[in-house]
Amino acid sequence: MINRRMVFALSVLLLASSATPGMAQDYWYRYWQHSPRWRAVTGGIYQLENRIAFLEANPDIDDGYKGPIVSRARRDIRGLNATLERARWDWPTPCCYRRKPIHIR
Predict the structure, then answer these.
(1) Where are the domains of the chain?
(2) pTM above 0.70, yes or no
(3) Is pLDDT above 60 for 2?
(4) Sign of CA dihedral 15, 20, 22, 23
(5) How many other C-beta atoms can be found within 10 angstroms of the C-beta atom of residue 23?
(6) Which of 3, 30, 35, 48 has the most C-beta neighbours closer than 10 Å?
(7) How much is the pLDDT for 73?
(8) What is the pLDDT of residues 74-95, one digit of tens each?
(9) What DSSP assignment string belongs to 67-104?
(10) What is the rounded distance in angstroms from the CA atom of residue 45 to the CA atom of residue 42?
(11) For residue 76, which of 35, 27, 39, 41 has the smallest C-alpha distance?
């Protein structure tokens, strides 16, 4: 009984570990298609969001001190987001799916 469970667990682990490199390649391929400027801007947004999270999570820092810092960081994030292009999603289904309306009596 224990041997069957171990074989099953190891086979599940083997299958899971073989599927992740394929998924990782797909992710990194999409990431590196972007320009270096895009990566720099999104990295800056990530750092600002982390700074906000650390400041808001620390109860020892006075709200009067961290309030302006958080507000400025959020304003900077909005400015950085405005410099990025609009997202163009590649959907597997065509746009504007339409079907006949359903009428309930």
Answers:
(1) 1-33, 34-86
(2) no
(3) yes
(4) positive
(5) 9
(6) 48
(7) 95
(8) 999 999 999 988 766 666 666 6
(9) HHHHHHHHHHHHHHHHHSPPP----SS-SS---PPP--
(10) 5
(11) 41
